[in-house]
Amino acid sequence: MNHKTALLVIDAQVGIIEGTNNDSVFAKDSLVHTIQALIEQARTRSIPVLFVQDEDVRDGLGEEAFAIHPSLSPLPNEPVVWKRATDSFHGTDLHEQLQELGVTHLVITGCKTEYCIDSACRKATTLGYDVTLVKDGHSTSDNAALRGEQIVAHHNTCLHGLSNLHPFIIVRPSEEDVLVPSHDSYR
Questions:
Q1: Sign of dihedral through CA atoms 166, 172, 177, 178?
Q2: Per the confidence metrics, is the pTM higher than 0.90?
Q3: CATH class of 5-186
């Protein structure tokens, strides 16, 4: 199957990554480095990079926190989709933009694992996209029940292999060439 890949960077915003009151995401420096490297690889290969920003961050923490992390800033020609829901596709034109680009394979990175990353991965498969979730390219902060590290590990386990009809999710580490889909080798 011929695939066209896009890199999706979800909620990689200052207020989420850096947090407030010592609630930064798990392994924030490593996360930023991983996403930054993937963005550079995608740009070098002319693979579309799309960014999603959660408007609730602006409402709750202000404009500075709403900004995409300065190490991950989009280029002027790269789309930035603003969302209000946990699901990056709900109430946005993300799906339409991906369709216009001819994308069939999404590489997903960003924050927060149990909310926006999980929702985007699952929804993308129901919309017909094969998904590669970058194992070390998403993160979250601790909650009342689990540490961020545990939440990431749990989602890497439960999302790997999840399918909705034909498209499915593969979890792969960033040291692999995640921009090249490996889904067909499992079909």
A1: positive
A2: yes
A3: alpha beta
